[in-house]
Amino acid sequence: MLFDDKDHPDRSHPRIPMSVPVLVTDVQGRTFHLETRDLSHGGAFLEWSDCDAPELPKLKTREPGERLAVQPAELGDPPDVSLDQTPEVQAEIVRVEDHGLAVRFLNER
């Protein structure tokens, strides 16, 4: 099931609802545990609804254009896939909302 993008007609890639725990690292090296709400070839929406309270003020003050590294967190319980096995993707914040960040993946060549 793809999201209906009536609110974002300029979107280049369809979004797929997908909840994946991710580790987000900012340019200062601080890490945050978030979860994807949706994912596309070009980006994702990262929610902080279950984020630890001390992290929230740092996340909510992010600005569009700031860069982050996004990496799937360890998957499974116990983890079947560890952090050293998951790719890290460079991303740029597109917008900040009450419950999370929209990011665009950057093509590193």
Short description:
The chain has one helix at residues 56-60, and strands at residues 16-17, 21-26, 31-39, 43-47, 67-72, 89-97, 100-105.
The separation of the N and C termini measures: 31 Å
CATH superfamily: predicted glycosyltransferase like domains
Total strands: 7
Which range best describes the helical content: under 10%, 10-25%, 25-40%, 40-55%, 55-70% or over 70%?
under 10%
Number of domains: 1
Mean pLDDT across the residues is 80
CATH architecture: Beta Barrel
CATH fold-level name:
Thrombin, subunit H
Major sheet, described briefly?
6 strands, antiparallel, barrel
CATH class: Mainly Beta
β-strand amount: 35-45%
Please tell me about this protein's structure.
A hairpin with a 4-residue loop joins strand 2 and strand 3. This protein has one domain: Thrombin, subunit H, CATH 2.40.10. Helices cover 5% and strands 39% of the residues. The model has no long low-confidence stretch (mean pLDDT 80). The protein has 109 residues and is mainly beta. A 6-stranded antiparallel barrel has the order 2-3-4-7-6-5.
Task: Describe the protein's topology.
Layout: E1 16-17, E2 21-26, E3 31-39, E4 43-47, H1 56-60, E5 67-72, E6 89-97, E7 100-105
Antiparallel strand pairs: 1-3, 2-3, 2-5, 3-4, 4-7, 5-6, 6-7
List keywords for this structure.
109 residues, 7 strands
